[in-house]
TrEMBL record:
PANTHER family: VASCULAR ENDOTHELIAL GROWTH FACTOR (PTHR12025), VASCULAR ENDOTHELIAL GROWTH FACTOR A, LONG FORM (PTHR12025:SF5)
GO cellular component: extracellular space; membrane
Source lineage: Eukaryota, Metazoa, Chordata, Craniata, Vertebrata
Natural source organism: Tupaia chinensis
Name of the protein: Vascular permeability factor
Record SMART domains: PDGF
Length: 155
């Protein structure tokens, strides 16, 4: 018998929800797929990359992290509220030792769709440079001036 945590298992149908041969309504699909904190299995080495000499059991932990769709390519699902959670993990140093240790992990409690950082960074670079298409056109025109038919031939 397996226990489910209702706040973490949103992809699994619960009592009163559609079963295998039923159609899930559009609004239910939309609400479930929109940006929100959802249980995500995170590799411990992703959170603690400097501890590669150890083996961790389990090797990943269930954390609430932002996930889902924003319905606009220019937006991404990002955390707006976070908190730390401490978990007990078995830390093994092969052929030497093993013990249970406590590790802190970051969890997301609220998420929002916000403009992607790469898009805002690109816009800032363009404004800093100040060289738009207008500058390029001016350069191209000045390049070909000496090729004009009206100029005297060069010798």
């Amino acid at each position: 018998m397996s226990r489910r945590c209702p706040q973490w298992s949103q992809a699994v149908p619960m009592e009163g929800e559609p079963k295998a041969h039923e159609v899930v309504k559009f609004m239910d699909v939309y609400k479930r797929s929109f940006c929100h904190p959802i249980e995500t299995l995170v590799d411990i080495f992703q959170e603690y990359p400097d501890e590669i000499e150890y083996i961790f059991k389990p090797s990943c932990v269930p954390l609430m992290r932002c996930g889902g769709c924003c319905n606009d390519e220019g937006l991404e699902c990002v955390p707006t509220e976070e908190f730390n959670i401490t978990m007990q993990i078995m830390r093994i140093k092969p052929l030497q030792s093993q013990h249970i240790t406590e590790k802190s992990f970051l969890q997301h409690s609220k998420c929002e769709c916000r403009p992607k950082k790469e898009i805002t960074a690109r816009q800032e670079k363009k404004s800093v440079r100040g060289k738009g298409k207008g500058q390029k056109r001016k350069r191209k025109k000045s390049r070909y001036k000496s090729w004009s038919v009206c100029d005297k031939p060069r010798r």
